[in-house]
Amino acid sequence: MCRKSEVTDLKQQLRQLAGSRAPDADDQRRDVFKRVISCMTAGIDVSAAFGEMVLCSATSDVVLKKMCYLYVGVHARNHPDLALLTINFLQRDCRDQDPTIRGLALRSLCSLRVPNLVEYLVAPLATGLKDPSAYVRMIAAVGAAKLYHIAATSCLDAELPAALKALMLSDPDAQVVANCLNALQEIWTLEAANSEEAAREIETLYSKPVVFYLLNKIKEFSEWAQCLVLELASKFLPSDNNEIFDIMNLLEDRLQHANGAVVLATIKVFLHLTMSMTDVHQQVYERIKAPLLTLVGAGSPEQSYSVLCHLHLLVMRAPMLFSSDYKRFYCQFSDPSYVKKLKLEMLTAIANESNTYEIVTELCEYAGNVDVPIARESIRAVGKIALQQYDVNAIVDRLLQFLEMDKDYVTAETLVLVKDLLRKYPQWSHDCIAVVGNISSKNIQEPKGKAALIWMLGEYSQDMHDAPYILESLVENWEEEHSPEVRLHLLTAVMKCFFKRPPETQMALGATLAAGLSDTHQDVHDRALFYYRLLQYDPAVAERVVNPPKQAVSVFADTQSSEIKDRIFDEFNSLSVVYQKPSYMFTGKEHRGPFEYSEDLSNLTVGAETSEKVISAQRYQENDNDLLLSTSDKEDIGTAASNGSASTYNAPSDLISPSLLSSQTPSETSLINPGGPTYSSQSNFSLDDLLGLGVPEAPAAPPAPALTLNSKPVLDPGTFQKKWGQLTLSLSQECSLSPQGAASLMNPQSLIRHMQSNYIQCIASGGQPPNYKFFFYAQKDGATAFFLVECIVNTASAKAQIKIKADDGTAAEAFSALFQSALSKFGLS
Predict the structure, then answer these.
(1) Would you tell me the crossing angle of helices 160-170 and 174-191 to the nearest 10 degrees?
(2) Residue 709: beta bridge partners?
(3) Which of 45, 168, 364, 748 is least buried, going by the fewest C-beta atoms within 10 A?
(4) CA 15: distance to chain centroid?
(5) pTM for the structure as a whole
């Protein structure tokens, strides 16, 4: 390990070796260079030896050159003033006879990333793109993209993108072609937000001549380059079915490739090209099954997990695809936990009438697994299969056997599943209750298991002889139960039991409500108060609310919407599939394209800079998750954020006496008196109708007024930014585009021009296929009121999410209708 005190000695040795012509001078330089690199790696500042290192670089030894370039690349970024010393020798090395040295020097020159030295990069890059060595041309192609990030104007003025395009279509070396393609995609995608010409250039990349040219050379590319070309092919829009079959024939052998990334990228091309051909699409599923199963069984656990994630996504769309191959998803002893968990999800997804018995038998073996999380997942998997109505009789018997295993986590998970099964299959209540009634609540430690048991005690208290007494003992130990979930279930269960067996439960109900009203948890307190007031108002109403007639639950809610699943499918062969969420939910704002994928425009440059950076702290707070919320959900969130804390109520002192149902103070009675309050919102009508209080229907909303827009609105970026931060959200809606409109978005400028023809102006835009984002504005004719719009378009699903903020909120509905009408006509004319 190098010490700081040695830096001076190293500097002195380098100075002595700088002009040495001794036969072993290069060997001595190597030793000293290695020590300098070692010190640098250890975090010691060796920038003091910068000049001496540059002097010693005058050698033909490639190893010395590499170490010197590494040193220069690290310290040039931290010490831009010293970087100027390296220009001369790097430019000289760019003209060396050895192509390896030329390439290394050019790479180091582009890696300096010092804006003041941009003028020295252009000429070597232009020369490098024409170099006779493929290695140098490959480095130059990547260097052009680096130059664009340092100084975009210099890169474009030197016409490097045009040179890259010509090189991509003519160079005989496959790696040079791939690097040119990657650089062009990066440059043109970023430039498309500001240049219509760049948008047209992107379209040429997705054109038939370019795509077929690259696909015909695909066997020559490296694995990384093949994935790059295949990703390009997945965005190609064929003009007829013959082109689709031509591409599939070209890529048929890629399905047998040893690299999993190439196979998945090929599958993505097949799936996306055949989306509109139902029969062929189904055949594609059959064709890709064997390669995917091969990848699952071969390679590392990490690869198996990634492939299983993609398999799971496909099974969600075609459940019968792998139903006959269920044994391939049995857990192996050597599988890590994350692979086992995913295999259990696969077994659950592919279960059907023909294989349920075998799958459930296998899952029951896992219930006794020493890996507790896997044991839990296996029990849940059995319950999910039962909820799918496959072989319910045998599965219920298996679940009830789990209750005899005398393991706390097994009992807890099983009770939760039994509760769900009884909600869907009430006819099994007698068999289940006979077993559950023998379980002591004292032996259940997990809150969710205890809550499930309490739910069954309340729901089926008429069939369980000891139910009131078990609930009473639980109420007596209220203070020892710290879980709000258990307390909430206990409140409801005691209420249900009271209406079924009142004499045995009245004292327990009083004690429960008293404990709930004095509880420090807000939800528990509020529910107890709600039940208390219901009972005071009318016990018959309370019974209808708390203990309505049982109705079997036909379908349990899915945790993911179909829209989210479609978005994940659009991002096949990416981390979105592994994370099971669209990319915008987990990527940083700086990686979402040339714009910030956020409601806040404070970091989005849409034109001239503005000095006004202060935005009101009371503005409506939003984030990317709002894409998943309805308008009413967002209004609820906004309302909750603006309200103060709830009032605190004291528990009445007469709860355990017959005066439980006595009169109430007028102020409290008015809260439940149907004739007292004035109902002013739709939500109030809905709630009161749910309680059966006979509230009249809400009046219909008045029709939206007609709206005319100013044909020449004027709004500068600074004002737009300020307004967007200060205005609250007026509307959030989803609408559809025509297929022609989605296809036309290959050139986003066409949508901007179309909306301008409807007097709606665009102030900022960006993105890349399949997601584009636009900020529009319009002005009400004859008024100063503006409408601001964020429009996020997904070309794969032909859907658009629009969010509108308006100075005049009463006209938001009318403007939304006008905006959607204009959007629906895009691409049709």
Answers:
(1) 140
(2) 780
(3) 45
(4) 55
(5) 0.65
